[in-house]
């Protein structure tokens, strides 16, 4: 029964009841001693029936009282009244987040602000080893002045369940024992559902659930029964935020899904990392400072632009110092340009004198080579070593270089043969092959290297001793000043520069120092050797923030600048070499019978997807900032008229009658394809009956069927045929490696088998036919079929040009057709998606260009 006004609870006099729920009743009371109104929460009498439980309650309350932070409810006192424990806390005026959500989704800016405040409070609690375990809208209070307070720290593991609950019921909490569920249905982390021990990363999962609900107005995990909800938490991917219809920044969507990873090891690894990412989205100096104070550290403020997840983003020049943001009392550093030619810069290092700089670059479309420069000189001198770039320079002046380096499949990475070269000149001495990165030990006697071993990437130090290997990627290894460990960037996925700053000792003990970055470009030890400096992008921003992290994992911001930046090196006096790059993906269309071509690029990263049989219509993909997080499907006429956006996704094929476009919605789970009408009509999406989509979708000439490459979970790829729109996919080939185009008559599809052997697979199920005139290994690419279905168009490419020839796959006879070259070779990284029309008269190809400049940065605080 509720307590009547005037009732005494210890020294507190009840004024009125303000709330009640499964965790007890809350009263407004008067503290006569301090002459202030307080909130008194009286918990169920069952707490006092177990002495161990009551003792634990007091211990948890004492821990909560020790948390002194503006985003955590202040606890003043505890006691027992008539056998019921109670807690005395500050009295708040406002409403819970649950009450605010009854009106629907919260505006993005306000939701980000609330999320930052949650991160502030959690950072303070986690610093003291206190975990909440039951974050939900009911436990988050918004005061009238907009401040968010986290309620009920430590109480989640004190309430025992009573009976069944519905998915929408507020609380279902239990004792903290292994094998017993702890938390709130719909907000629990997977480890809580399984009854496993939950650490601070479980709180971060809860935060992700709350942010999702703030942004969309609905729960991320829901169902008709409690079992449905728990199953969804364990097995189902959360719906993409971009599909909810609300204008949510792409970077914020990625941040939420990073919180909601099923595996705790794949989430943000600390609340400071989460706050770091939220701060980048909010762009608010005050929020940044508040989080820093809450976590017991100070950092400079910064602002990062939210863009699509494109590693190479278009950027402004670093010389525009007005575009930079630093702490309010900081003096902006100076930027001195070291290069001025047009091309791509791969790496740069300080020589032992800290004045000479050696760098590897490819200027004006030429070959990659080493250059020497000094800040006072406007010129760079070639070192006369072609097809090479710099890895590291030892304290004794010996260079570790890459010979015959080739693009590594990762932006601005170059794999080749590791060799030693004296800085003063001399012949290279080869050491190891397939090396992507290397760094000297402080004494100049040993090297740490990153190299490929079959399908794995290994970090070795010294050479031959494997410290770490991964199926993802490793970049920027840096041996510590003491030589006892190696820092590096750990990329979970091959070909993706998202990753974390990691430290590993000579016994293979690995620690993650800072994580949650959408891109990390470059790493180096600070002048004092007490920090690692790195350039990273946070929550989908390009890598444009120069940060520092200590060996204990404390972050701070050194500087932020526009565009794509890469940290190359740090000198012993605190100067920094930075590469600032801009990129563009473009499209060239032309006639095989005429010279020159027409630029049909649209936004910042355009890639061709399909060309109509008559060469008059182009289907293309926008994958950069302009395309958005899910990419965009565009169509335009090749006469140069304006492009039309059809919708989200990666375009695959244009129907034979030109009325429909097939596109892949790659953010959808499960995988979905979509049909967009070119003119009037209704868009229709459909799934693939449990298959994973591997690409290469195209129409058969009857217009009612499509072919695509896909696979069942855990299986290799096959080519599948599907009747549109609702037919079940049927396998048309055995397992393959990579699908090519289907013949116009629909009788053959070109594909490489699992051993990369080029074959023609008959669609009637007959045995495959070996393609004559093409070696195995995907050295050349099939880019189309001739209209007679008897010959292939094949492309033999290097970085500068692509030779197109016509091949009879049954006889091996070849006939040259065209050599394709972009009009400007500067910064050219290669070709993409070359296509030839069936009549052989029209072509289209995509290209990627990266242009960079080298800067010396002085005046950074260290």
Describe this entry's structure for a reader.
The protein is mostly beta strands. Among the domains are: 8-90, Phosphorylase Kinase, domain 1, CATH 3.30.200.20; 95-286, Orthogonal Bundle (Transferase(Phosphotransferase), domain 1), CATH 1.10.510; 584-850, TolB, C-terminal domain (Neuraminidase). 12% of the residues lie in helices and 41% in strands. Strands 15-16-17-18-19-20-21 form a seven-stranded antiparallel β-sheet, with no helix packed on it. Strand 1 (8-9) and strand 2 (12-21) form a beta hairpin. The longest helix has 20 residues, at 108-127.
Note the topology:
Layout: E1 8-9, E2 12-21, E3 24-31, E4 36-42, H1 51-65, E5 75-81, E6 84-90, E7 94-96, H2 97-101, H3 108-127, E8 140-143, E9 148-150, H4 190-193, H5 200-216, H6 226-235, H7 250-259, H8 271-282, H9 285-294, E10 334-337, E11 343-350, E12 357-363, E13 369-373, E14 381-386, E15 388-393, E16 398-407, E17 414-422, E18 429-440, E19 447-453, E20 456-460, E21 466-470, E22 473-479, E23 485-491, E24 499-505, E25 510-525, E26 531-538, E27 545-550, E28 555-560, E29 564-570, E30 576-591, E31 598-599, E32 606-611, E33 617-622, E34 632-637, E35 644-648, E36 650-654, E37 660-665, E38 672-677, E39 684-687, E40 692-699, E41 705-711, E42 718-723, E43 730-731, E44 738-742, E45 748-752, E46 758-762, E47 769-770, E48 781-785, E49 792-797, E50 802-807, E51 814-820, E52 828-836, E53 842-858
Antiparallel strand pairs: 1-2, 2-3, 3-4, 4-6, 5-6, 7-8, 8-9, 10-53, 11-12, 12-13, 13-14, 15-16, 16-17, 17-18, 18-19, 19-20, 20-21, 22-23, 23-24, 24-25, 25-26, 26-27, 27-28, 29-30, 30-31, 30-53, 32-33, 33-34, 34-35, 36-37, 37-38, 38-39, 40-41, 41-42, 42-43, 44-45, 45-46, 46-47, 48-49, 49-50, ...
Helix pairs in contact: 3-5, 3-8, 3-9, 5-7, 7-8, 8-9
């Amino acid at each position: 029964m509720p307590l009547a006004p005037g009732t005494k609870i210890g020294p507190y006099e009840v004024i009125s009841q303000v709330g009640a729920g499964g965790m007890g009743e809350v009263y407004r009371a008067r503290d006569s001693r301090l002459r202030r109104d307080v909130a008194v929460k009286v918990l169920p009498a069952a707490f006092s029936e177990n002495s161990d439980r009551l003792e634990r309650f007091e211990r948890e309350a004492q821990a909560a009282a020790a948390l002194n932070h503006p985003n955590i409810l202040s606890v003043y006192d505890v006691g027992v009244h008539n056998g019921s424990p109670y807690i005395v806390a500050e009295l708040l005026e406002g409403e819970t987040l649950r009450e605010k959500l009854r009106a629907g989704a919260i505006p993005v800016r306000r939701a980000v602000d609330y999320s930052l405040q949650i991160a502030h409070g959690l950072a303070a609690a986690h610093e003291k080893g206190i975990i909440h375990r039951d974050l939900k809208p009911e436990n988050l209070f918004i005061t009238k002045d907009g401040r968010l307070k986290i309620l009920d720290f430590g109480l989640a593991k004190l309430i025992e369940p009573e009976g069944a609950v519905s998915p929408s019921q507020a609380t279902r909490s239990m004792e903290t024992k292994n094998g017993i569920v702890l938390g709130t249905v719909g907000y629990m982390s997977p480890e809580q559902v399984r009854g496993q021990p939950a650490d601070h990363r479980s709180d971060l999962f809860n935060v992700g659930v709350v942010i999702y609900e703030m942004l969309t107005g609905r729960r991320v995990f829901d169902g008709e029964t409690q079992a449905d909800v728990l199953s969804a938490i364990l097995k189902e991917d959360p719906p993409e935020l971009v599909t909810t219809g609300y204008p949510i920044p792409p970077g914020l969507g990625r941040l939420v899904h990073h919180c909601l990873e099923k595996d705790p090891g794949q989430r943000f690894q600390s609340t400071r990392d989460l706050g770091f990412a939220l701060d980048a989205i909010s762009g608010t100096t005050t929020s940044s400072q508040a989080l820093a104070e809450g976590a017991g550290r100070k950092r400079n403020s910064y602002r990062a632009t939210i863009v699509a997840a494109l590693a190479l983003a278009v950027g402004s020049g670093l010389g525009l110092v007005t575009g930079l943001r630093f702490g309010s009392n900081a003096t902006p550093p100076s930027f001195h340009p070291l290069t001025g030619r047009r091309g791509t810069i791969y790496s740069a290092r300080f020589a032992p004198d800290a004045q000479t700089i050696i760098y590897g670059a490819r200027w004006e479309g030429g070959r990659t080579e080493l250059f020497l420069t000094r800040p006072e000189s406007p010129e760079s001198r070639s070192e006369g070593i072609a097809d090479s770039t710099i890895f590291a320079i030892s304290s004794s002046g010996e260079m570790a270089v890459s010979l015959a380096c080739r693009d590594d499949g990762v932006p601005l990475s170059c794999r080749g043969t590791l060799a030693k070269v004296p800085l003063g000149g001399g012949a290279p001495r080869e050491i190891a092959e397939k090396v992507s990165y290397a760094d000297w030990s402080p004494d100049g006697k040993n090297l740490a290297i990153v190299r490929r071993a079959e399908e794995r990437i290994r970090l070795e130090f010294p050479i031959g001793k494997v410290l770490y290997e991964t199926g993802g990627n490793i970049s920027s290894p840096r041996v510590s000043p003491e030589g006892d460990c190696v820092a590096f960037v750990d990329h979970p996925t091959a070909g993706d520069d998202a990753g974390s700053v990691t430290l590993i000792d000579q016994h293979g003990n690995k620690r993650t120092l800072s994580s949650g970055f959408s891109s990390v470009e470059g790493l180096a030890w600070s002048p004092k050797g007490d920090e690692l400096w790195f350039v990273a992008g946070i929550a989908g921003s390009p890598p444009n923030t120069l940060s520092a992290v200590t060996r204990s994992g404390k972050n701070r911001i050194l500087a932020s600048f526009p565009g794509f930046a890469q940290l190359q090196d740090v000198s012993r006096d605190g100067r920094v070499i930075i590469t600032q790059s801009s990129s563009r993906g473009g499209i060239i269309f032309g006639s095989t019978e005429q010279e020159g071509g027409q630029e049909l690029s649209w936004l910042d990263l355009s890639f061709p997807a399909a060309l109509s049989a008559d060469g008059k219509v182009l289907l293309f993909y926008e994958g950069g900032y302009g395309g958005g997080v899910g990419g965009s499907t565009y169509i335009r006429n090749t006469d140069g008229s304006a492009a039309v956006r059809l919708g989200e996704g990666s375009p695959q094929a244009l129907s034979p009658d030109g009325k429909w476009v097939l596109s892949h919605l790659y953010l959808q789970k499960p995988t979905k394809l979509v049909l967009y009408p070119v003119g009037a009509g209704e868009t229709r999406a459909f799934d693939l009956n449990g298959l994973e989509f591997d690409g290469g979708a195209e129409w058969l000439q009857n217009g009612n069927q499509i072919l695509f490459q896909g696979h069942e979970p855990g299986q290799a790829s096959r080519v599948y045929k599907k009747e549109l729109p609702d037919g079940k996919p049927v396998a048309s080939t055995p397992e393959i490696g990579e699908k090519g185009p289907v013949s116009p008559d629909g009788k053959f599809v070109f594909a490489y088998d699992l051993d990369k052997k080029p074959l023609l697979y008959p669609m009637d199920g007959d045995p495959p036919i070996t393609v004559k005139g093409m070696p195995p290994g995907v050295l050349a690419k099939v880019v189309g079929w001739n209209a007679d279905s008897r010959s292939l168009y094949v492309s033999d490419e290097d970085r500068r040009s692509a030779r197109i020839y016509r091949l009879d796959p049954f006889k091996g006879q070849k006939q040259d057709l065209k050599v394709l070259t972009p009009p400007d070779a500067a910064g050219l990284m290669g070709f993409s998606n070359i296509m030839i029309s069936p009549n052989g008269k029209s072509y289209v190809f995509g290209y990627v260009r990266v242009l960079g400049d080298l800067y010396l940065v002085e005046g950074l605080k260290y």
